[in-house]
Amino acid sequence: MTSAIRSFGSRPCALTVCRGCCCGDPGKHPGTDHAGQLARLREAAARSGGRLMVRTSDCLGPCGQANVVVVQPSTEGRRRGGRAAWVGWALDDDATDEILTWVAAGGPGVAEPPATLELQFFPAPVESRNSTR
Fold this sequence. Notes:
The chain is an alpha+beta fold and about 130 residues long. Helix content is about 30%, strand content about 15%. A 5-stranded mixed sheet has the order 2-1-3-4-5. It is globular and about 40 Å long. About 30% of the residues are buried.
């Protein structure tokens, strides 16, 4: 019964790939193979045996850092203190390779990110909240 409970609550490392107004826009980033990048990420997820999930978002918000990929920890990574990492300027094969290498090693909380990928991290955006008094 313990293994059933563990597998029910278990979640893989997840990539959320922005493909909204700026990210994935060939007009904004004409030298980037946006479709090829997404295909590579999805192929890696398909080969991962359920250890990686990829989804897209219409807009994650920080357009100044396009293309944005959020790397979310697995259940195990979260247990170990891992938090979502926001990666900006993921525009080339090197960035894609580093993201895939990191998540293959376990992702946030399980493995350290490549140092050059860490240079592309930025804080998660915070929605501004209007307070009425």
